[in-house]
Write a structure and sequence with these properties.
Rossmann fold; two-stranded antiparallel sheet; 9 helices
Protein backbone atom coordinates (compact mmCIF):
# COMPACT_ATOMS: atom_id res chain seq x y z
CA UNK A 1 0.00 0.00 0.00
CA UNK A 2 0.97 3.64 -0.36
CA UNK A 3 0.37 5.97 2.54
CA UNK A 4 -1.11 9.39 1.84
CA UNK A 5 1.23 12.16 2.95
CA UNK A 6 0.18 15.26 4.87
CA UNK A 7 2.78 18.01 5.20
CA UNK A 8 2.90 20.86 7.62
CA UNK A 9 4.20 23.98 5.87
CA UNK A 10 6.41 26.02 8.18
CA UNK A 11 9.59 24.23 9.20
CA UNK A 12 8.81 21.29 6.90
CA UNK A 13 8.54 22.54 3.31
CA UNK A 14 10.00 26.00 3.87
CA UNK A 15 11.88 27.75 6.65
CA UNK A 16 9.42 30.55 7.27
CA UNK A 17 9.74 30.60 11.06
CA UNK A 18 12.40 33.36 11.06
CA UNK A 19 10.24 35.40 8.67
CA UNK A 20 7.02 35.17 10.71
CA UNK A 21 9.08 35.73 13.86
CA UNK A 22 10.51 38.99 12.50
CA UNK A 23 7.09 40.09 11.25
CA UNK A 24 5.48 39.27 14.61
CA UNK A 25 8.11 41.10 16.65
CA UNK A 26 7.84 44.15 14.40
CA UNK A 27 4.05 44.02 14.33
CA UNK A 28 3.65 43.65 18.09
CA UNK A 29 6.14 46.45 18.69
CA UNK A 30 3.61 48.79 17.10
CA UNK A 31 1.30 47.89 19.99
CA UNK A 32 3.98 48.53 22.59
CA UNK A 33 5.08 44.90 23.05
CA UNK A 34 8.83 44.30 23.26
CA UNK A 35 8.83 40.58 22.45
CA UNK A 36 11.84 38.28 22.33
CA UNK A 37 12.18 35.23 20.05
CA UNK A 38 11.95 32.95 23.10
CA UNK A 39 8.49 34.31 23.91
CA UNK A 40 7.08 32.60 20.82
CA UNK A 41 8.44 29.06 21.36
CA UNK A 42 5.42 27.68 23.29
CA UNK A 43 3.13 28.72 20.43
CA UNK A 44 5.03 27.27 17.46
CA UNK A 45 2.67 25.23 15.28
CA UNK A 46 -0.52 26.51 16.93
CA UNK A 47 -1.42 29.05 14.25
CA UNK A 48 -0.78 32.77 14.12
CA UNK A 49 -3.71 33.67 16.38
CA UNK A 50 -1.95 31.87 19.23
CA UNK A 51 1.58 32.60 17.97
CA UNK A 52 0.88 36.33 18.09
CA UNK A 53 -1.91 36.36 20.66
CA UNK A 54 -0.11 34.19 23.19
CA UNK A 55 2.85 36.55 23.25
CA UNK A 56 0.63 39.63 23.39
CA UNK A 57 -1.20 38.19 26.39
CA UNK A 58 2.09 37.22 28.03
CA UNK A 59 2.99 40.91 27.92
CA UNK A 60 -0.36 41.93 29.39
CA UNK A 61 -2.07 42.96 26.14
CA UNK A 62 -5.44 41.67 24.96
CA UNK A 63 -5.14 40.03 21.54
CA UNK A 64 -7.00 41.66 18.67
CA UNK A 65 -7.37 40.23 15.12
CA UNK A 66 -5.94 43.48 13.73
CA UNK A 67 -2.59 42.45 15.23
CA UNK A 68 -2.44 39.38 12.98
CA UNK A 69 -3.53 41.47 10.01
CA UNK A 70 -0.62 43.84 10.60
CA UNK A 71 1.84 40.97 11.07
CA UNK A 72 0.75 39.44 7.76
CA UNK A 73 1.17 42.80 6.02
CA UNK A 74 4.78 42.90 7.21
CA UNK A 75 5.24 39.22 6.33
CA UNK A 76 4.20 39.81 2.72
CA UNK A 77 6.62 42.74 2.49
CA UNK A 78 9.64 40.62 3.46
CA UNK A 79 8.83 37.03 2.44
CA UNK A 80 10.24 37.28 -1.10
CA UNK A 81 13.71 38.15 0.14
CA UNK A 82 13.81 36.21 3.41
CA UNK A 83 11.99 32.91 2.90
CA UNK A 84 14.30 29.89 2.76
CA UNK A 85 13.23 26.88 0.71
CA UNK A 86 14.70 23.66 2.05
CA UNK A 87 17.06 22.08 -0.45
CA UNK A 88 15.51 19.30 -2.51
CA UNK A 89 11.99 19.68 -1.11
CA UNK A 90 10.36 20.92 -4.31
CA UNK A 91 11.88 18.10 -6.34
CA UNK A 92 10.90 15.58 -3.66
CA UNK A 93 7.24 16.63 -3.78
CA UNK A 94 7.04 16.25 -7.55
CA UNK A 95 8.83 12.89 -7.35
CA UNK A 96 6.38 11.62 -4.74
CA UNK A 97 3.48 12.83 -6.87
CA UNK A 98 4.91 10.95 -9.86
CA UNK A 99 5.19 7.82 -7.69
CA UNK A 100 1.44 7.95 -7.10
CA UNK A 101 1.28 9.41 -3.61
CA UNK A 102 -1.62 11.58 -2.56
CA UNK A 103 -0.19 14.77 -1.06
CA UNK A 104 -1.77 17.37 1.19
CA UNK A 105 -0.78 20.43 3.19
CA UNK A 106 -2.30 20.99 6.62
CA UNK A 107 -1.04 24.26 8.06
CA UNK A 108 -2.21 26.23 11.06
CA UNK A 109 -1.28 29.37 9.13
CA UNK A 110 -3.85 31.36 7.19
CA UNK A 111 -4.31 31.09 3.42
CA UNK A 112 -2.51 34.37 2.74
CA UNK A 113 0.70 33.05 4.31
CA UNK A 114 0.56 29.52 2.90
CA UNK A 115 -0.12 30.75 -0.63
CA UNK A 116 2.70 33.30 -0.40
CA UNK A 117 5.12 30.60 0.75
CA UNK A 118 4.15 28.25 -2.08
CA UNK A 119 4.51 31.02 -4.64
CA UNK A 120 7.98 32.01 -3.46
CA UNK A 121 9.04 28.34 -3.29
CA UNK A 122 7.78 27.67 -6.81
CA UNK A 123 5.51 24.83 -5.66
CA UNK A 124 2.26 24.48 -7.60
CA UNK A 125 -0.90 23.97 -5.57
CA UNK A 126 -2.05 21.56 -8.29
CA UNK A 127 0.13 18.72 -6.98
CA UNK A 128 -1.83 18.57 -3.72
CA UNK A 129 -5.06 16.64 -3.34
CA UNK A 130 -5.98 18.93 -0.45
CA UNK A 131 -4.74 22.10 1.23
CA UNK A 132 -6.18 22.81 4.66
CA UNK A 133 -5.57 26.34 5.92
CA UNK A 134 -5.74 27.41 9.53
CA UNK A 135 -8.90 29.45 9.09
CA UNK A 136 -10.78 26.43 7.70
CA UNK A 137 -10.79 24.57 11.01
CA UNK A 138 -12.25 25.56 14.35
CA UNK A 139 -9.72 23.77 16.54
CA UNK A 140 -6.02 24.33 15.95
CA UNK A 141 -3.17 21.92 16.64
CA UNK A 142 -2.67 20.04 18.98
CA UNK A 143 -6.32 19.21 18.23
CA UNK A 144 -6.38 16.65 15.37
CA UNK A 145 -9.14 18.41 13.40
CA UNK A 146 -6.84 19.83 10.73
CA UNK A 147 -5.33 16.43 9.87
CA UNK A 148 -8.67 14.64 9.97
CA UNK A 149 -10.03 17.29 7.60
CA UNK A 150 -7.13 16.69 5.21
CA UNK A 151 -7.77 12.93 5.24
CA UNK A 152 -11.46 13.49 4.56
CA UNK A 153 -10.72 15.79 1.62
CA UNK A 154 -8.28 13.23 0.20
CA UNK A 155 -10.91 10.51 0.73
CA UNK A 156 -8.54 8.28 2.69
CA UNK A 157 -8.63 6.72 6.14
CA UNK A 158 -6.65 8.52 8.86
CA UNK A 159 -4.77 5.29 9.60
CA UNK A 160 -3.48 5.33 6.01
CA UNK A 161 -1.85 8.75 6.42
CA UNK A 162 1.63 9.86 7.40
CA UNK A 163 2.04 13.39 8.74
CA UNK A 164 5.35 15.24 8.35
CA UNK A 165 5.74 17.76 11.18
CA UNK A 166 8.37 19.82 12.94
CA UNK A 167 6.42 21.10 15.97
CA UNK A 168 5.31 19.44 19.19
CA UNK A 169 1.74 20.63 18.73
CA UNK A 170 1.68 19.10 15.27
CA UNK A 171 3.03 15.74 16.42
CA UNK A 172 0.41 15.63 19.17
CA UNK A 173 -2.31 16.37 16.61
CA UNK A 174 -1.08 13.68 14.21
CA UNK A 175 -0.96 11.01 16.90
CA UNK A 176 -4.39 12.03 18.20
CA UNK A 177 -5.72 11.64 14.64
CA UNK A 178 -4.51 8.03 14.56
CA UNK A 179 -1.88 8.77 11.92
CA UNK A 180 1.79 7.93 11.70
CA UNK A 181 4.13 10.87 12.11
CA UNK A 182 7.58 11.71 10.80
CA UNK A 183 9.15 14.50 12.84
CA UNK A 184 11.77 16.83 11.36
CA UNK A 185 14.41 18.39 13.62
CA UNK A 186 14.19 21.81 11.98
CA UNK A 187 12.57 23.59 14.93
CA UNK A 188 13.24 21.37 17.94
CA UNK A 189 16.09 18.94 18.74
CA UNK A 190 15.51 15.20 18.58
CA UNK A 191 15.36 14.74 22.34
CA UNK A 192 12.51 17.26 22.59
CA UNK A 193 10.57 15.74 19.67
CA UNK A 194 10.81 12.27 21.22
CA UNK A 195 8.63 13.43 24.11
CA UNK A 196 5.61 13.23 21.79
CA UNK A 197 6.52 9.77 20.42
CA UNK A 198 6.67 10.35 16.66
CA UNK A 199 7.09 7.16 14.63
CA UNK A 200 10.22 8.42 12.90
CA UNK A 201 12.61 11.36 13.28
CA UNK A 202 14.68 12.81 10.43
CA UNK A 203 17.12 15.68 10.15
CA UNK A 204 15.80 16.97 6.83
CA UNK A 205 12.43 16.74 5.13
CA UNK A 206 13.92 15.06 2.07
CA UNK A 207 15.04 12.19 4.32
CA UNK A 208 11.43 10.99 4.50
CA UNK A 209 12.02 9.42 1.11
CA UNK A 210 14.34 6.88 2.73
CA UNK A 211 11.64 5.97 5.25
CA UNK A 212 8.98 5.64 2.56
CA UNK A 213 11.31 3.45 0.55
CA UNK A 214 11.39 1.01 3.46
CA UNK A 215 7.72 0.98 4.46
CA UNK A 216 6.05 1.51 1.09
CA UNK A 217 8.53 -0.22 -1.23
CA UNK A 218 8.41 2.73 -3.60
CA UNK A 219 11.22 1.45 -5.80
Amino acid sequence: MKYSLIFDMDGVLVDSEPVILEASIRGLSEYGVKASPEDFLPFVGAGEDRFIGGVAEKHGLTYKPEMKKRVYEIYLEIVDSKLKIYEGVTQMLYKLKDKGYKLAIASSADKVKVDANLKVAGISKDIFSAIVYGEIVVNKKPNPEIFLTAAKLMEVNPSDCIVVEDALNGIKAAKSAGMKCIAVTSSFPEEVLRRENPDFIVSNTVDIYTILKKIDNIY
